[in-house]
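Appendix B, Record 12. Input sequence as logged:
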Amino acid sequence: MARTFSPEEIDTSVLKDKVIASIGYGFQGRRYSMSIKNHGFRLIVGNIRDKYYDEAVADGMEAYSIEEAAKRADIVMMLTGDEAQPKIYQESIQNRLRDGGALVFASGFNVYYGFIQPPKQYDLLLVAPVTPTVMGVGVENDVSGKACNIALALCKVGRTPFHLAVETTFAEEVVTDEFHAAADVSVSCQLAMFDLLVEAGYSPEMAYFNTIGWITANVEEAFQKRGSEGLEKAFSMTSNTSHYDKFVYAQTLLDKRFKTKMRRILRKIEDGEIAKEWMLEDSLGRPVLNRRMKRFLEHPALVLERTMLAKRTKAKV
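Logged structural output:
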């Protein structure tokens, strides 16, 4: 069983007088940075001169080049996309970290698959979001003797609100996270359901609101319910009829062949095959991903959704 840590069990004083650098100020970087700064700790941003750098400045952040931020910081947090990190680390960070400092990742991807191999003279930490309020925490190198305390403190101050930290490893975090993304077919199923309903003669509008539209309308409330009270309580939001449909019929779709395919995906994640594919795909300009995204965005359900959202926005004005 993994150890878990509540906010009350975590002491953040280990971060006092430390300079924490957020490398990147996109979705992850901005969220971590704002939360850490709001907790009263010294936070600087390292970013190339682009719109995210300008956003950091507009937010009142102390912003520098990536190289300068890495030199100034005691704790360097890698918060850019996985695919960008190896080049950033090699060109701007690896020879600028302070001995005895800490290098922190929000994903186990690059360390586990060997795209980044930090030297042993730094604390090497994992502080990874698992849910909006739960963090995975791991320690690969503990040079300072305080690595676990630092990682836990970053969990507590890096997420607002924060409910729980779960002990993990770089390997476990990336495999479970990638498997969730690769084997979760919920959106694909909803699009297929939309297609089948329309083919059967039902209106696209009603098909939409009972598939993709249902997800977008109810996901926030459902996640809040699941996060605070668990999946069992979340089902109280739906009817007994829907329970019968879900547990008697929907589960028949998950047969042995489906699980066999999922198992193959898990093996490809564990041995790094998918990670290598993705890094090659990114280096070639993402041709496969771009085609798949284009097909997704052109799906009739998404076209209908944009039309209805535009009408709703116009009605508000």
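The chain has a mean pLDDT of 91.
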